[in-house]
Amino acid sequence: MDIKRRYYEILDARARDLADLLAGDPQTSVTALLLDEIGAFYKTAKTEKALFGSEGFEVAYHAPVTPDLELLLARILLHYSDRKSLGWKIYLRRQTKQMVDGKAAVIAPDIRVEKDGRTLAIAEVKAKVGWMQPFFSSDRVARDLERRRAGKSDFDPEADIAACRRQIQKYALGFNIEKEQVFMFIPTLSAAHRKKSARTAADYEADFVKNSHLGSENLILLSRNLELDLAREYTADDLHPTNRFERFVKKVEAIGKQTS
């Protein structure tokens, strides 16, 4: 338990460092540093295999990355607020009961930023695109629909997209905010991209806009390198960081000032 406590203390110290950079030096790419932190999470997740893997013991399981990523992001936002005296309160996967279309619904966003009882922003966090590939890729939708027509799969990508879109609307209605205050955090789009595909990051962003009914700025995409897999070896030159995370934080700050 002491070791686990120390791990989270180190994670929080790193969150504080990144928040200080966000609040201070505009020339520093916090996104590039954040991508490296996520890469470190993946390395940590492979500890069981590295430690216990042997001829007589094979390990397939590894710890999920998303919970640590959510915690890191939430603590960055809290320390940023403290650094600039913004008065934010950060809720991490906190369930609340809200009215949606006249009915009580339990809602638990990944991260919710609140000030003086008013929600400023909600961020859904995905370490990888994973099962949400159709939400970002019309190519994947076409492939899944073809498999469905051929009787090779029961998966309906269009129904899946509609469900994701309803979730966004549910957040907006439940917390009485504009849908533009709902964001989606994605480090890379490598899981949605197929090798030898001519598609660009802008193509995937356009699919996100179409399917989510949000703007491209609501996609907090950290890297434009479509082949970047943070779970594998990479170099600093592979990161191709955006500035979406920095702009997201500034936007939340601006929303907070408008509602003061």
Describe the model.
With 260 residues, the protein is α/β, with parallel strands linked by helices. The protein has one domain (2-258). 48% of the residues lie in helices and 14% in strands. The protein has 9 helices and 7 strands. The protein has helices spanning 2-23, 30-45, 47-52, 66-84, 133-136, 138-149, 157-174, 201-212, 244-258, and strands spanning 88-92, 96-100, 103-107, 111-115, 118-125, 182-186, 219-221. Strands 1-4-5-6-7 form a 5-stranded mixed beta sheet, with helices on both faces. It has a two-stranded antiparallel sheet with strand order 2-3. The longest helix has 22 residues, at 2-23. The protein is globular, with a radius of gyration of 19 Å. The model has no long low-confidence stretch (mean pLDDT 92).
The stretches of 5 or more residues where confidence is low (pLDDT under 50) are none
The outline comes out as globular
Count of alpha/pi helices: 9
Strand percentage:
5-15%
Question: How do the strands of the widest beta sheet line up side by side?
Answer: 1-4-5-6-7
Please state the average pLDDT score.
Answer: 92
Report the count of strand segments. 7
| Largest β sheet strand count, sense and barrel closure | 5 strands, mixed
Considering DSSP H and I runs of 4 or more, what fraction of the residues is helical? 40-55%
